């Protein structure tokens, strides 16, 4: 996800509508504009259609609409020349609909009025009259321009902008663009300027318009829903005061229908639709809950029998009152009827053809009127051979292909009716089931993934490292390019490539600096798993982490994405020496932004072809090198002891519509694969072009694609971006498909060991199960799907992505070391203490695995289970199993963990103390029940110079120094496109870079302690409990309730007794063969704290600091001690310590 909205300008008035939050649930709150290049702010009405959008295009108010026809034109004033000019004080906006359907509409406002709105909070009407809705908008002094858009949620209706001009108070108001406007007087004597908005028109009228001249509907909307052959749903009342209404369905095979004031015109065929009782829609509403309350309309048998024909043309549904007057007309969404009548379960893409013994290429395109295959002999250039494909069953088109086409390329030429342009389009498009590609995904390559040419030696026979249970997992999140691009111990040709993860590929380019890096990381320059192989600095660091127990390497998107030119010669580079500029200079970011959209860096959350490795990470983006090198990377990481996680993005595509070369799915079946609002526009709450896994063929594509990566690339886990936008049924089918993979038939792959986790935020059009039960936090208990726990993050750091960045939490000094910059907002000591104790309870719940059933003794003195406590307005704990808990504090989204600590901690803190805070965060993650998740470099106190969303900030801001010789704080102000509004306070911090930036010794101390914490985790099974009952029995907290010592958590883990019978029948719980108990103390206070022994520790219990922590050699950590005589645990400031009672 997305994941995951920090432009806090929403609702701030300007001459353009303010940016609106679009990215993720406030409980997680990753930047709304995402890591994609989309602006997502609402500006003046534009001319784009969503079908033409791609994430790289800034969103405009008119994205879903037709062009604005110039506003309101000037009209000659009739006032006397000597009349005094008066500025209007109020803009009165009238809204009229022919169908009188006014329920739920609000007004989004921008410009020179104090009534500017956030998108999610439209203005309610000032009054409701027989003539429609009215809003009175006060105007600012000197107002010049105001814009207004009528909308209901994401459904946009009429809009317009008006220029404000002075009037004589009794005549006309001169306004720009289409006619004069009348002036009236408000009750308080202010001059009122009036405009009228009508239906879905994108112009403002200066006087009440003649409705007979206004189209009764729009061909560019699709508010009708054909959900099954005999049923169509539309949110139109079946009747009004004039009597019952009449509904009609119109069809044209060439797309020549239009709508005018008299309704739909020019159908080839049309049918009356009878109104059915509400219960007729019962089954359809179960499939499409968001259509609850719509009117069911019966499609007559003669039309239902022609479904396969009608879905290939233009469809319009219209409504008329009892007098025959046209009230509305709209297009028809056909996803539901396609799912009922034209799905296909046979092979798609290039596949063996049992009928001929050869091969065929099959495309699912049920709405197409023609499909041709264009065959190319090479990755680029050459003339296409054109072959007519044959329509088959289930909406498919097929072409047998010769065997000698293997390794050649093809595209499709598809003709179909496009709802976004309201006409037929013929487009060239690649195959959504592509398994190979030319550079930049311009052509699909025919490949054979079983051919040795696509495999490194030993590929089929090698197996991933063994995994006993999912709670044994720990994850390190890493970007392929970040790993090696700035590492001079990697041969230049391999930097930023898959092969940089392969020691044998690095060997010929090893250097003295690589040996230095390995020694710094505490690892010899040869790997135990690769004897004799020299390690790069990055590989040396990974080897050290793996030796400590970290075992899953999570790679940010590695499928084919849109936002990087795949051929290196086409990638732009920053040529200046950016290190020459001051730490708070804007010069660095200006140089990065100048090439950002054409350089080699992007996070890659911009999917085009889900089933093919990204070409920019391969040494050759054309052909099979990307396949072979991705496999070689996976095989090498397996040999180094790592299991590999792939970050996947099935919640959206980068582009839609007929124009963009990055649009694939929507060119083939327009409007089907993407989730659409009720009016037909594509939902974009994830950032852009949301996909709809509730549709059968979209779900099939997702399930088969995941299975393909697991079987053919031996990927060991999948992290789902914005997983909450996928249906839970889709995730369950993925789980079942993976579970069916076995070593015997799938070359060593154990499907049941593959871990699935993701961003389970619940927001946008799917929130509250509006589109069916989605894979959101509150729906996941017992599913075995992992979800990121934002409560741990917000409890430890404080605030959240929507709060001021200086807000503090348990670790960052709330109450105990207040940040003067947040003092006004955080309140006094009493308020801060109350907040600190609540946040501490949040962290305790996370340490216990985020289990709904875990009982917590809370700061208010009560004892309640995790699901009975609220956080972010929802249950604090929502998991059913420990493996469903992904414990994280930092990730690629938002600022790095250390950058947030810099912002939140008092400016007076030293770099040493900030390092200690970071280590406390790492300890909370590492010692939590569930699955620890660490962002790459957080153990090295990684900084991106305060960049909150570095998806497109280049190598300069994203670099990692694995040797700890340099640190990236203070390498310039972060990019203005995402951070410009925060530059004033950021500049003050960055100017102090020399004082704030940690030393190399502090960085190395942080990673050494982190590695020791990992060893602690894997030294005892009690940190990795798999059953919720065991967590409840064997994990306890002390120093709780209203009288607790603030800033201190004491967690006790107790072993179950030894099973003398050997069959487990008499023992409940997990036995630790080394320790009878472990006591974990997190002292987040900036001073020493002495804590009493837990009552269960027997006299002479002989507690001692865990040997792995004692071996670190860190003076502060070594000062943590258990005083048996006084029965006290003595904790230094800002220290996490684990005390053990050894078995005798």
Largest sheet entry: 8 strands, parallel, barrel
Q: Give the terminus-to-terminus CA distance.
A: 48 Å
Proportion of strand residues: 15-25%
Mean pLDDT value:
90
Number of helices: 26
How do the strands line up in the largest sheet? 30-31-34-35-36-37-42-43
Structural class: alpha+beta
Helix fraction, binned, reads 10-25%
Summarize this, please?
This protein has 1144 residues and is α+β, with helices and mostly antiparallel strands.
Q: How would you describe what is shown here?
A:
The structure is a single chain. The chain is α+β, with helices and mostly antiparallel strands and 1144 residues long. Helices cover 19% and strands 22% of the residues. The strands form 13 sheets. It has an 8-stranded parallel beta barrel. Residues 1-83, 169-181 and 510-532 have low confidence and may be disordered. α7 (512-520) packs parallel to α8 (537-548) and α14 runs antiparallel to α16 (829-847). The chain starts with 89 loop residues before the first strand and ends with a strand. The longest helix is centred in the C-terminal third of the chain and has 20 residues, at 1000-1019. It is built from 26 helices and 51 strands.
């Amino acid at each position: 996800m997305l994941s995951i909205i920090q432009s806090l300008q929403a609702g701030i008035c300007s001459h353009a509508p303010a940016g609106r939050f679009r990215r993720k649930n406030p409980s997680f709150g990753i930047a709304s504009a995402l890591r994609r290049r989309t602006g997502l702010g609402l500006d003046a009405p534009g001319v784009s259609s969503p079908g033409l959008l791609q994430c790289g295009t800034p969103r405009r108010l008119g994205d879903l609409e037709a062009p604005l026809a110039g506003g309101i034109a000037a009209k000659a004033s009739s006032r006397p020349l000597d009349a005094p000019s008066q500025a209007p004080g109020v803009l009165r906006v009238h809204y009229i609909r022919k169908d009188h359907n006014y329920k739920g509409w609000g007004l989004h406002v921008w410009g020179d009025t104090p009534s500017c709105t956030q998108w999610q909070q439209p203005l309610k009407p000032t009054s409701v009259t027989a003539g429609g809705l009215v809003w009175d908008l006060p105007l600012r002094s000197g107002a010049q321009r105001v814009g207004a858009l009528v909308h209901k949620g994401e459904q946009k209706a009429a809009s317009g902008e008006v220029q404000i001009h002075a009037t004589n108070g009794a005549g006309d108001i001169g306004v720009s663009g289409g006619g004069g406007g009348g002036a009236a007087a408000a009750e308080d004597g202010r001059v009122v300027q009036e405009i009228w908005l009508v239906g879905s028109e994108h112009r403002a009228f200066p006087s009440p318009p003649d409705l007979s001249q206004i189209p009764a509907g729009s061909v560019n909307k699709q508010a009708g829903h054909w959900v099954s052959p005999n049923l169509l749903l539309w949110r139109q009342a079946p009747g009004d005061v004039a009597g019952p209404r009449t509904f009609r369905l119109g069809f044209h095979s060439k797309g020549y229908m239009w709508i005018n004031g008299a309704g739909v015109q020019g159908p080839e065929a049309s049918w009356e639709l009878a109104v059915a009782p509400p219960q007729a829609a019962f089954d359809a509403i179960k499939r499409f809950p968001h259509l609850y309350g719509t009117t069911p309309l019966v499609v007559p048998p003669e039309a239902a029998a022609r479904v396969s024909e009608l879905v290939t043309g233009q469809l319009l549904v219209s409504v008329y009152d009892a007098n025959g007057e046209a009230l509305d007309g709209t297009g028809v969404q056909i996803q539901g009827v396609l799912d009922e009548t034209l799905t296909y379960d046979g092979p798609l893409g290039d596949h063996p053809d049992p009928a001929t013994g050869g091969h065929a290429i099959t495309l699912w395109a049920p709405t197409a009127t023609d499909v041709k295959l264009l065959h190319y002999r090479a990755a680029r250039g050459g003339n296409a051979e054109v072959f007519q494909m044959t329509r088959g069953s289930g909406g498919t088109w097929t072409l047998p292909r010769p065997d000698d086409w293997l390794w050649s390329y093809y595209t499709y030429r598809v003709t179909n009716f496009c709802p976004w342009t309201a006409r037929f389009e013929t487009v060239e498009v690649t195959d959504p089931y592509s398994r190979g590609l030319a550079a930049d995904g311009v052509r699909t390559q025919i490949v054979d993934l079983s051919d040795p040419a696509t495999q490194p030696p030993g590929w089929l026979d090698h197996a991933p490292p063994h995994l006993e249970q999912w709670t044994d997992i720990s994850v390190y999140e890493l970007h392929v390019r970040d790993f090696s691009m700035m590492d001079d111990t990697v041969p230049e040709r391999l930097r930023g490539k898959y092969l940089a993860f392969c020691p044998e590929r690095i060997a010929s380019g090893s250097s003295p600096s690589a040996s230095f890096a390995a020694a710094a990381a505490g690892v010899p320059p040869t790997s135990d798993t690769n004897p004799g192989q020299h390690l790069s600095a990055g590989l040396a660091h990974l080897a050290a982490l793996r030796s400590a127990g970290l075992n899953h390497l999570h790679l940010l998107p590695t499928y084919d994405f849109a936002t990087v030119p795949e051929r290196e010669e086409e990638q732009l580079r920053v040529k200046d020496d950016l290190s020459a500029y001051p730490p708070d200079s804007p010069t660095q970011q200006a140089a990065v932004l100048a090439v950002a959209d054409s350089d080699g860096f992007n996070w890659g959350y911009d999917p085009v072809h889900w089933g093919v490795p990204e070409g920019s990470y391969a040494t050759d983006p054309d052909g099979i090198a990307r396949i072979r090198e991705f496999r070689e990377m996976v095989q090498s990481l397996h040999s180094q002891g790592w299991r590999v996680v792939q970050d996947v993005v099935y919640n959206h595509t980068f582009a839609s519509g007929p124009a963009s070369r990055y649009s694939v799915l929507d060119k083939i079946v327009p409007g089907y694969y993407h989730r659409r609002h009720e009016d037909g526009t594509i939902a974009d709450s994830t950032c852009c072009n949301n996909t709809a896994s509730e549709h059968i063929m979209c779900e099939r594509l997702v399930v088969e694609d995941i299975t393909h990566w697991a079987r053919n690339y031996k990927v060991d886990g999948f992290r789902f971006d914005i997983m909450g936008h996928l249906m839970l049924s889709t995730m369950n089918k993925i789980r079942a498909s993976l579970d069916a993979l076995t070593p015997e038939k799938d070359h060593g792959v154990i499907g049941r060991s593959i871990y699935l986790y993701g961003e389970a935020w619940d927001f946008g059009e799917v929130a509250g199960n509006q589109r069916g039960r989605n894979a959101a936090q509150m729906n996941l208990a017992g599913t075995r799907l992992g979800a990121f726990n934002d409560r741990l993050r917000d409890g430890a750091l404080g605030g959240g992505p929507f709060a001021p960045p200086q807000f503090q939490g348990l670790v960052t000094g709330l109450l105990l070391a207040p940040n003067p910059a947040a003092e006004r907002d955080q309140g006094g000591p009493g308020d801060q203490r109350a907040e600190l104790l609540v946040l501490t309870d949040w962290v305790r719940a996370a340490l216990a695995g985020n289990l709904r059933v875990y009982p917590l003794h809370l700061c208010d003195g009560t004892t309640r289970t995790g699901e009975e406590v609220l956080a972010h307005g929802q249950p604090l704990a929502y998991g059913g199993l420990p493996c469903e808990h992904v414990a994280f504090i930092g990730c690629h989204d938002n600022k790095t963990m250390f950058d947030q600590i810099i912002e939140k901690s008092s400016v007076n803190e030293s770099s040493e103390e900030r390092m200690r805070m970071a280590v406390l965060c790492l300890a909370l993650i590492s010692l939590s029940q569930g699955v620890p998740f660490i962002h790459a470099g957080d153990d090295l106190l990684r900084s991106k110079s305060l960049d909150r969303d570095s998806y497109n900030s280049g190598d300069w801001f994203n670099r990692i120094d694995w040797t700890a010789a340099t640190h990236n704080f203070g390498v310039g102000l972060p990019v203005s496109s995402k951070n410009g509004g925060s530059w004033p306070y950021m500049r003050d911090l960055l100017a102090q870079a020399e004082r704030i930036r940690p030393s190399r010794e502090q960085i190395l101390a942080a990673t050494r302690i982190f590695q020791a914490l990992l060893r602690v985790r894997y030294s005892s099974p009690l940190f990795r409990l798999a059953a919720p009952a065991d967590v409840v029995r064997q994990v306890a907290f002390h120093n709780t309730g209203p009288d607790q010592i603030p800033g201190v958590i004491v967690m006790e883990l107790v072993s179950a007794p030894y099973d003398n019978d050997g069959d487990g029948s008499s023992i409940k719980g997990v036995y630790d063969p080394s320790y009878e108990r472990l006591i974990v103390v997190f002292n987040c206070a900036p001073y020493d704290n002495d804590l009493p022994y837990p009552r269960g520790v027997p006299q002479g219990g002989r507690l001692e600091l865990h040997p792995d922590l004692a071996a670190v050699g860190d003076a502060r950590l070594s000062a943590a001690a258990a005083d048996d005589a006084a029965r006290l645990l003595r904790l230094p400031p800002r220290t996490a310590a684990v005390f053990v009672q050894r078995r005798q």
